[in-house]
Write a structure and sequence with these properties.
Elements lengths: L19 E5 L27 H13 L4 E5 L9 H11 L3 E5 L7 H9 L3 E5 L5 H8 L4 H14 L4 E7 L7 H10 L4 E6 L25 E4 L4 E3 L10 E2 L5 H5 L2 H13 L21 E3 L17 E3 L2
Parallel strand pairs: 1-2, 1-7, 2-3, 3-4, 4-5, 5-6
Antiparallel strand pairs: 7-8, 8-9, 10-11
Helix pairs in contact: 1-2
């Protein structure tokens, strides 16, 4: 497979249009979460087209466009055996943030050593302090215990860890207790979000841009395992090109991307129907937190570690 790699002389202005990239390493996942936007499962790898050489090529293109923040995601990215080598390449290339978004149920000693060696940041989802609720959401018995144990291993390795709690009918009664459970574990970067009616959570309803958080109207992109490029992981229905057919530089500078970003902004940030988060109440923040506006973004997509309280320091 041959990806477009040659710079087309579009100018330095292109470099300023790419701040953060999600790089999806597979659409497969060992879980079957009821709300999964990607509709991932153990059998959904049919569109995993990019190989290791392709990903290395793409990582180089991302860097040459001025982007220094990269997240490996899936599906479940740890199912891609190339992950350690891709992390090493991104580190040596010069990325200042390398993060892996994983369900933390599939973490080998070797992979944890790679994370430590290259100071990889970790992000995961945690649904409830009650094992039966968490496992019911993931569709995998024992996922609560595996995720919990591996969060502890990540902490013992002194790696950065942020945890997102997605609010849904199944876990809503336990949200406060779940947050407290995580804080007692020593987790300080905790984010929250509602279920987005996209993918499996959409229940066959047509995609609606108003379900997006709006951050993908800015300078971020996602690249799927099939080579498709979209504004973010949840906006794949509005893909703007493929790295199998164009260089990433051409896609970033394309009218197609500008137009989609404009439409997303109109339907989210500028929309009178946009989802409004409840304001942060400082009384609800713990001793290690401070209240920050729900509009503040630490990462380009929720759950972002800032809502409703953000860790001090």
């Amino acid at each position: 497979m041959h990806l477009g790699t040659q710079a087309s002389g579009l100018g330095n202005d292109v470099a300023q249009k790419l701040d953060f990239v999600w790089l999806e390493l597979t659409n497969r996942c060992n879980l079957r979460c009821v709300h999964c936007y990607a509709e991932s499962s153990p059998t959904t790898g049919g569109k995993d087209i990019l190989d290791e050489a392709d990903y290395l090529n793409v990582i180089d293109q991302i860097y040459r466009l001025g982007c220094r923040k990269l997240q490996f995601i899936g599906g479940e990215p740890t199912l891609n055996r190339s992950l350690p080598r891709l992390i090493k390449s991104a580190y040596r290339t010069g990325f200042t943030l390398i993060e892996v978004f994983t369900n933390l149920t599939h973490l080998s000693d070797n992979l944890l050593s790679v994370f430590r060696a290259f100071q990889v940041a970790l992000a995961t989802s945690f649904y409830s302090c009650r094992p039966e609720i968490h496992d019911g959401i993931t569709g995998q018995r024992g996922s609560f215990q595996r995720t919990l144990r591996n969060m502890q291993r990540v902490q013992e390795a002194q790696l950065s860890l942020r945890v997102g709690v997605i609010e849904m009918d199944q876990n809503r009664p336990d949200l406060t207790e779940t947050w407290e459970f995580l804080r007692e574990m020593g987790i300080r970067h905790i984010g929250s979000d509602r279920v987005r009616q996209i993918g499996r959570a959409a229940n066959a309803v047509a995609p609606d841009m108003r379900e997006l958080c709006g951050s993908c109207a800015e300078n971020v992109l996602t690249i799927g395992p099939d080579g498709l490029v979209a504004p973010c992981n949840m906006s794949k229905q509005w893909a703007v090109g493929s790295v199998l057919e164009q260089s990433l530089e051409e896609i970033v500078a394309s009218p197609a991307l500008s137009n989609v970003r404009r439409e997303i902004k109109k339907n989210t940030v500028d929309s009178e129907h946009k989802h409004v988060e409840a304001p942060c109440d400082p009384k609800n923040c713990g001793p290690y937190d401070y209240c920050c506006p729900s509009t503040q973004q630490c990462f380009p997509c929720e759950p972002n570690g800032c809502s409703p309280c953000r860790p001090k320091g």
